[in-house]
Amino acid sequence: MYAWPASDVPALPGSGRDLRIHDTATGGPITLQPGPVARMYVCGITPYDATHLGHAATYNAFDLVQRVWLDTGRQVDYVQNVTDVDDPLLERAVANEEDWTVLAERETALFREDMTALRMLPPRHYIGAVEAIPEIVPLVERLRAAGAAYELEGDIYFSVAADPAFGGVSGLDAETMRLLSAERGGDPERPGKKNPLDPMLWVAAREGEPSWDGGSLGRGRPGWHIECVAIALGRLGMGFDVQGGGSDLAFPHHEMGASHAQALTGQWPFARAYVHAGMVGLDGEKMSKSKGNLVFVSQLRRSGVDPAAIRLALLAHHYRADWEWTDGVLEAAVARLERWRSAVSRPDGPPADGLLEEVRRALADDLDAPAALAAVDRWVETQRTTGGTDEGAPGLVSRTADALLGVAL
Q1: Are the CB atoms for 37 and 74 separated by under 8 Å?
Q2: pLDDT number for residue 291
Q3: 3-state DSSP call for residue 387?
Q4: pLDDT at 49 (0 to 100)
Q5: Where in the chain is the domain with CATH 3.40.50.620?
């Protein structure tokens, strides 16, 4: 599966700072110090509705991580998946009376268009669950051979007891896990399971649903968590720098994925940092496909909204915060974009070297994009009120906004 084209990242003078970021597993900040190649895995979409602003906010956060790393002179090995076969996708295809593969391909294509428009840097590896099945089957077979998995009426489950570190990502108690599992695709009430929290690794073939040859597993399709584990281990290995996604993925998805990988390899941790973006709300509730309260990037673009303004609206909120999308949020972003573009179109202005360092410092401090925006706002206001004589300043501000914030002026 192919990703989307990369926008150019302008070169900036000097070098950026190492990223200090909040780690869900420890509950506090850690400073990431990757080697020459930083490694990141971010969970991708299930393509039956793409791309709402909750998606965009999440991928914007991890785009900033990429940009901070690139600014330090590192390369970035970024992997993202597409869950192009799963229950919600199959259910939507039935409801729409269309082939599930057509639905998945159409929504994935739209997602690529939105990511391109928003200037999100693409992953190096963009992998669909279906194409990863040959990698997934051997992992499930290994887990079963090691006693870390068991069969129940043809389905294969992972035993969470196989990982002594289970629970270390989310830090939740068993009852909270059980409740969240029921809400987020698990089946804790199914009779016969060794532990209500045990997640499915391989779904035995059901009538009317797609299935693949699973070797000793029989025909079926992969479970959700093992999909990401196979893709990540095959391209990044254990101990990669950042596992990312929305805050609703901390449990069960990232918890289960970590346990799968740790049981498979006997190593810990799966990822050095678990980084989670907040939820975007609309009309007082989290945006979600199940509720139908979605604002789509493509709809905003079709209505004439500049993608740079959408990006500024996302950047105006700290990535870990839960926040509400309103008309006022967009109006403020449109006005900010107009001010910034007007400022950098002038022939000169106040020196901008200090601004570059302010933006670097803000982003290195747990991706504090609102502080970075405020720094640019101050430069713009100084130029408006007192002017300046530095002919290179507007160009440096423009390159800073593009390289570090992904906003083309």
Answers
A1: yes
A2: 65
A3: coil
A4: 85
A5: 20-286
Question: Residue 349's Cα: distance from chain center in Å?
Answer: 37
Helix 255-265 × helix 224-235 angle, to 10°: 50
- In this model, does residue 125 exceed pLDDT 80? yes
Peptide bond into 36 cis (omega under 30): no
Asked if 248 and 279 count as a contact pair (C-beta separation under 8 A), the reply is: yes
The verdict on domain 297-405 having CATH code 3.30.1340.30 is no
C-alpha separations of 145 from 44, 111, 114, 206, 215 in Å? 30, 38, 43, 24, 14
pLDDT above 90 for 290: no
Distance CA 392, CA 395 (A): 6
To the nearest whole percent, how much of the chain has pLDDT over 70?
99
| Assigned superfamily of 20-286 | HUPs (3.40.50.620)
pLDDT of amino acid 285? 73
How wide is the angle at C-alpha 311 spanned by C-alphas 32 and 26, nearest 5°?
Answer: 25
CATH 1.20.120.640 boundaries in the chain: 297-405
pLDDT in tens, 126-180: 999 999 999 999 999 999 999 999 999 999 999 999 999 999 999 999 999 999 9
CB 246 within 8 A of CB 279: yes
Q: b/e string for 160-199 if b means 16 or more Cβ within 10 A?
A: bebbeebbbbbebeeeebbebbeeebbebeeeebeebbbb
pLDDT over 80 (residue 286): no
The residue among 285, 274, 288 whose CA lies nearest residue 245 is 274
- Across 195-218, average pLDDT: 97
CB-based contacts of 79: which residues, under 8 Å, 6+ apart? 40, 41, 42, 123, 124, 125, 126, 127, 231, 232, 235, 236
Tokens, residue 317? 């909120």
Half-sphere exposure of 164 (CA within 13 A, CB side): 4
The DSSP 8-state label assigned to residue 18 in this structure reads P
CA proximity to 19, closest of 61, 49, 47, 48:
61
Percent of the chain with pLDDT over 90: 96
The whole-number average pLDDT for the span 235-248 is 98
Burial of 389 (0-12, 13-18, 19+ CB in 10 A): exposed
List the strands of the sheet with 280-282, edge to edge: 285-286, 280-282, 323-324
Mean pLDDT of the chain: 96
